[in-house]
From TrEMBL:
Organism lineage: Bacteria, Bacillati, Actinomycetota, Actinomycetes, Micrococcales
UniProt source species: Intrasporangium oryzae NRRL B-24470
Family annotation (Pfam families): Cytochrom_C_asm (PF01578)
InterPro entries, A to Z: Cyt_c_assembly, Cyt_c_biogenesis_CcsA, Cyt_c_biogenesis_CcsA/CcmC
Domain Cytochrome c assembly protein: residue ranges: 115-318
Protein's UniProt name: Cytochrome C biogenesis protein CcsB
Length: 329
C-alpha cells in the first residue's frame, strides 16, 4: 500500500510539472511569431507537396504562392530556443514522474498496471508522454508540445476525478500473459494516433492559412509547411496503424484463449475493428493518386474520434454491455 500511495504522489507531481510544461510551451509559441515584412516569395525554397510517390512517381516541387506558404521559420530566436528547451526539460521530468507512478502501481499489485480504466488511462497518458519526448528530442518538435501536454493533463485529471480505483487484484479473465502484450502494444498505437491527430489538425489549420493568408501572422506561420505537416502526420499514423493491426490480432488470439472463440461481436472487438478500418481507409486514400490530402486527413481525424469512443463510451457506458465491461470498473 505504501507503493500505491507513492504512485499517487508521483501522479500528482507529474500533473504539476506537466502544467508548468504546458505554460512553458505556450510561452515558447509566443516567441515564434514570424516577421514577413520584406520577404520575397521567389527567394523562398520550393515546397514538396505530398510524400514522395502516391502513384509511383516522385512528387514535383511546387513554388509557394505566398510568403505564408513558404514556411517562414528561419532561424529561431535565442528567446524561442531557450523557452522551448525549458518546456522540453519540464516535459521530460513530468513524463519520468508519470512513468514512475505507473511502475509503482504495478509493483504494488504485482501485475501489469492496466487492469482497470484508471490504470489504463494513466498508462496510456504515460505512453503518449514518452512517445512525444522521444520524437520531440529527435525532431525539435517544441512547437507541438502544448497540443500534446494539454490532452495528457486532461486525461490524468479525468482519471483521478472520475476513474480512480484502489489498487487490487485482477478480474479472472485478465489473468493472462496476453494482458502485457496486447494492451502494451495498444498503448503505443494510441500514443502514435494521438500525436498523428495533433499534427493532422495543425496541418489543416496551416493549409487554410496558406490558402487564405491572414492580415497578421501568428505562431501558425512559424510551423513547418502544410506539406511537411501532412507527411509527418501520415508517417506517425502509419506506425500507429501497424501497431493497431497487431493489437487486433493479439486481441483475437487472447479471446480464443479466454472465451473459446476468436470473434464474439463484443462491442470492444467491433470498435477495435472499426478503428482499424477507418485508418486503413485513410492509408488507402493517402496512397491514391488524385485524392486531396486534406480529404484524406479528415478520415484520419475520424479514426482518432473512433479511438476516443473505444476507450471512453465503449468501456464506461452501459449501452455497450459486453465481455470487456470489467475494464470500466
Amino acid at each position: 500500500m505504501n507503493l500505491a500511495a507513492n504512485a499517487n504522489i508521483a501522479l500528482y507531481s507529474s500533473m504539476i510539472v506537466y502544467t508548468l510544461a504546458m505554460l512553458a510551451f505556450t510561452w515558447h509559441l509566443a516567441a515564434r511569431v514570424p516577421t514577413i515584412e520584406g520577404v520575397r516569395v521567389e527567394d523562398r525554397e520550393a515546397v514538396l507537396v505530398g510524400s514522395g510517390s502516391r502513384d509511383g512517381e516522385p512528387a514535383a516541387p511546387e513554388t509557394p504562392s505566398t510568403p505564408y506558404a513558404a514556411g517562414l521559420v528561419g532561424e529561431q530566436t535565442l528567446k524561442s530556443r531557450q523557452r522551448g528547451n525549458i518546456a522540453l526539460m519540464l516535459t521530460y521530468l513530468a513524463t519520468a514522474l508519470l512513468v514512475s507512478s505507473v511502475l509503482m502501481r504495478g509493483l504494488a499489485v504485482s501485475r501489469p498496471p492496466w487492469g482497470n480504466m484508471f490504470e489504463f488511462a494513466t498508462a496510456a497518458a504515460a505512453a503518449v508522454g514518452v512517445a512525444y519526448s522521444v520524437l520531440a528530442k529527435r525532431n525539435h518538435w517544441e512547437w507541438l508540445g502544448v497540443f500534446i501536454v494539454a490532452p495528457i493533463l486532461l486525461v490524468l485529471g479525468l482519471s483521478l476525478t472520475e476513474l480512480y480505483t484502489e489498487a487490487g487484484e485482477l478480474m479472472p479473465a485478465l489473468k493472462s500473459y496476453w494482458l502485457g502484450i496486447h494492451v502494451s502494444v495498444a498503448f503505443i498505437a494510441v500514443a502514435m494516433f494521438t500525436i498523428g491527430f495533433a499534427i493532422g489538425a495543425l496541418y489543416l489549420v496551416r493549409r487554410h492559412r496558406e490558402e487564405k493568408p491572414p492580415a497578421k501572422p501568428n505562431f501558425i506561420e512559424s510551423l513547418p509547411t502544410s506539406a511537411a505537416l501532412e507527411r509527418t502526420s501520415y508517417t506517425v499514423n502509419m506506425v500507429g496503424f501497424i501497431l493497431w493491426t497487431f493489437t487486433l490480432i493479439a486481441g483475437a488470439i487472447w479471446a480464443k484463449e479466454a472465451w473459446g472463440a476468436y470473434w464474439q461481436w463484443d462491442p470492444k472487438e467491433v470498435w477495435t475493428f472499426v478503428i482499424w478500418t477507418v485508418y486503413a481507409a485513410y492509408m488507402h486514400s493517402r496512397a491514391t493518386a488524385g485524392v486531396d490530402a486534406r480529404k484524406s486527413m479528415y478520415i484520419a481525424l475520424a479514426g482518432f474520434v473512433a479511438v476516443i469512443i473505444n476507450f471512453t463510451l465503449v468501456n464506461l457506458v452501459s449501452t455497450f454491455v459486453g465481455m470487456h465491461n470489467y475494464s470500466g470498473m
